[in-house]
Amino acid sequence: MGRVLPLLALRAFAEAGRYGSIKRAADVMGVTSGAVSQQLRLLEERVAAPLFSRTRYGVELTEAAAKVHPAMLRAFDQIESGLETLEASKAAQSLTVCTVPSFAASWLVPRLGRFTERHPQIEVRVEASSALADLRKQRVDIAIRHGLGDYPGLEATHLMAPELIPVASPRLLADGPRIDSPADCLAYPLLQDSDRADWRLWLQAFGVEGDPRIERGQAFDEDFLLVRAAEAGQGIALVRDIYAREEVRAGRLAVALDRPWPTEFAYYVVTLPQARERPAVAAFVSWLTSEAKA
């Protein structure tokens, strides 16, 4: 059997020699100064020779130790470089995707198995959150955002534009003011999504901005709750057409305004610049766009 190498003692020797300081070596290694001193004593006992002499500024390599220190330092630097390569390889095969809960539940998660079948080596972690992910500060590789596509400093790709329609109780609309344009909806209470974004973005797409009524009104976490509140006559809800189709057909809801959908109001795949140079990110973005087209 080969000899057991005292790696911790050798690392203490390499770092103390690099910095000329036991305290600095301890900080780098994440241990106490006493632990570094103890490892150095053990190494000196093993080689039966002094390795450092103390100076008023710290420690200094002895003549014999100085001859082997450069090779020892290179060895640990190579080990650290190899570890970084392994970690980068692992990171390259894992992804964190952030999107709003409704999109994650209704569209992304049910399809995710197809991506895993095609790319079993890539681990995907889905964060479902209404909060806007900060790609520069959080460990998020890909965000799927619902908006108008204006994301300064980020790379955005149009994914899909599911149509949202303004719906309300027929009685509420019959008793209220006439709606001929998107701005006319503001005469009614607006029933909001959880982060109060959909009405603001929908109106902005039609050139309506700056009115304080845009973000007022009750807010709901789920589309079916919005539909129920609209049925109860509490205001106008902006919901996916598929969620209100049955209620409109049955006459429990009416479309408040029938306008062509603003195509720029859509879901976008958003990444940091150069992020798509990573094979895993490029593969996931490509899969998303192909699923959206299908």
UniProtKB/TrEMBL annotation:
Top-level taxon in the UniProt lineage: Bacteria
Keyword Magnesium: no
Annotated keywords: DNA-binding, Transcription, Transcription regulation
Ranges of residues in domain HTH lysR-type: 5-62
CDD domains: PBP2_GcdR_TrpI_HvrB_AmpR_like (cd08432)
One Pfam family matching this protein: HTH_1
Family: Belongs to the LysR transcriptional regulatory family.
Protein name: LysR substrate-binding domain-containing protein
Lineage of producing organism: Bacteria, Pseudomonadati, Pseudomonadota, Alphaproteobacteria, Hyphomicrobiales
